[in-house]
Amino acid sequence: MFNTNYISIAQLAIAFVLDIAIGDPQWSYHPVRIVGRAINLTENVVRKIPVPERIAGVFLTITIVAGTYVTAYVILQTSKRLSSLCELIAGAIIIYFSISIKNMADEVKKVMTYLIENDLINARRSLSQIVGRDTINLDRGQIICACVESVAESIIDGIISPMFYSFIGGPCAAIAYRAVNTLDSMVGHKDSKYTRFGWASARLDDIANYIPARISALLIPLASFLCGCSLKYSLKIAFRDGRKHESPNSGIPEAAMAGALRVQLGGPSTYQGEVIEKQFIGDIQNELNLKSINLAIKIMYITSILFLSCGSPFVLFFYNL
């Protein structure tokens, strides 16, 4: 057990360094894209089963998450039979495909580049690649706000959650979480097509992110302090406004980030032409600008380092009691 835990942490550390160094590869055979294609294929199959939509959605969720876990398990067991080094490398690569730190920073920086050039058309187009809201009519301030919100939310989806499940369940759990997150992004919508069918995927994503989101309520303020912001104010807004988001989890990192930057996030957003009234998060003490995005990215990086450095000793201590 002792050696196994060290291997698991080494795999995560290697994956972390790989992601920071080269980011998420845009391959057509990227595991997450394969999962996405599997979701589309499985959806077409289960929708033909003569059962209620929610039950069909449960079938989809179980099939995709279990299939992803089992596939990763087979790969790891096969590599383990070859050598410990093969097991280490295979596990690190699986976790590497599960986390996404540099990619979010790079995508947001693309939007910043267009904003610096006052090219709102391309800024909106680039932003549409990382947010679900309609971007065609967003002004400069709204674009910046969406960028900061995306960075804050990615701290859960792309960093803390996959790392958390890697800590407690190794590479298989990390990539299975990624499958859960992909399911939620593809079918967990509240529209006429997916309200019932995507219910199971959306609820499972809420459950999977519950603990990581609350960990972020502590780590983001600490990272903010290390970046020269107020730890106390970030904590205050995290606990005051964390529940104002329609998601039980997304509002927590957004509120912590809003407090760190002393800005206001949230507010009405348009999805597929429909205006959704969202509550405002945080207070307007500073104006949202390009510096806000840069600081949010910096806080995201520091948060990821804190979780890796703090989580590893805890896991070793827990499993060796």
* Average pLDDT level: 93
Overall tally of domains: 1
> Span between N and C termini?
11 Å
Strand % is under 5%
| Low-pLDDT sequence parts | none
Report the principal-axis shape: globular
What would you call the structural class? mainly alpha
The overall strand count is 4
* Total count of helical runs of at least 4 residues: 11
Radius of gyration: 20 Å
Question: Could you give the order of the helices and strands?
Answer: HHHHHHHHHHEEEEH
Q: Describe the strand arrangement of the main beta sheet, using strand numbers.
A: 1-4
Report the helical percentage: over 70%
**Main β-sheet, in a few words?**
2 strands, antiparallel
What's the layout of helices and strands?
Layout: H1 2-22, H2 31-46, H3 53-82, H4 84-96, H5 102-116, H6 120-127, H7 140-187, H8 199-226, H9 231-241, H10 251-261, E1 265-266, E2 269-271, E3 274-276, E4 280-281, H11 290-319
Antiparallel strand pairs: 1-4, 2-3
Helix pairs in contact: 1-4, 1-7, 1-11, 2-3, 2-7, 3-4, 3-7, 4-7, 5-6, 5-7, 5-11, 6-7, 7-8, 7-10, 7-11, 8-9, 8-10, 8-11, 9-10
